[in-house]
Design goal:
262 residues, mainly alpha, 3% strand, 2 strands
Amino acid sequence: MGAGHRHSPTHRLHIPRRSAVHALPAHCKLVAVFCFVLVVVTTPGRAVWAFVLYAALLATVTAVARIPPATVLTRLLVEAPFVVFALLLPFTVPAGPGERVTVLGLTLSEPGLWGAWNILAKATLGVAASVLLAATTEIRALLLGLERLRLPPLLVQIASFMIRYGDVVADDLRRMAVARRSRGFEARGPRHWGVLAKTAGALFIRTYERGERVHLAMLSRGYTGTMPALRPDAAATRAQWTYAAALPAAALAVRLLGGNPL
């Protein structure tokens, strides 16, 4: 199980590097990303050039943190459901007289096009900022950062358990898949969905039983609803806060100087 945790998906999100971004305390980066995303989502959708500058700011952070751009682009695939939803808006959003445009022979709603752009631009920038945060900060450091920011302890506990046992469940699912393949099973169509559904049911029962056993073990060791305090990281210096504030401050400058519809 220890090997599984070392190579778990959540641990692979972090890319170890020696950079100024990696060296920043986790709570500084959390505040910086939150403020950056807040500025992005409040920017009017028609201020296209502002979003271009926001993307340039994230590209600069990527370069400073020495994160491969291909890695960031690959991890952006997680927003695929939002992309699909956005692509439907030009066909579904009603348009008034004179509010339709023709693109590649298709008649599309102009408000729908702007809505799609708004969702795509803001979602992509938000996800990219989150990807950079995960790539430059270890999971444990993020939990420590949330604790230092006075997030309710119960929420920190829930997040900690989700991360730890998400990896355990993923390992269980991988072993069950190996067991199916060793018996010659390979899902090739709807007629095999029954087997996959049984696998999902068995996995649910296993995780539920494991959760009960873990809870009983915690109670037997004196758990009363609070976990021992995590060892906090060192307090951030003024210089570190200033460095972390560079990204949201630059984004705010773009927003104030011209992030309005033309």
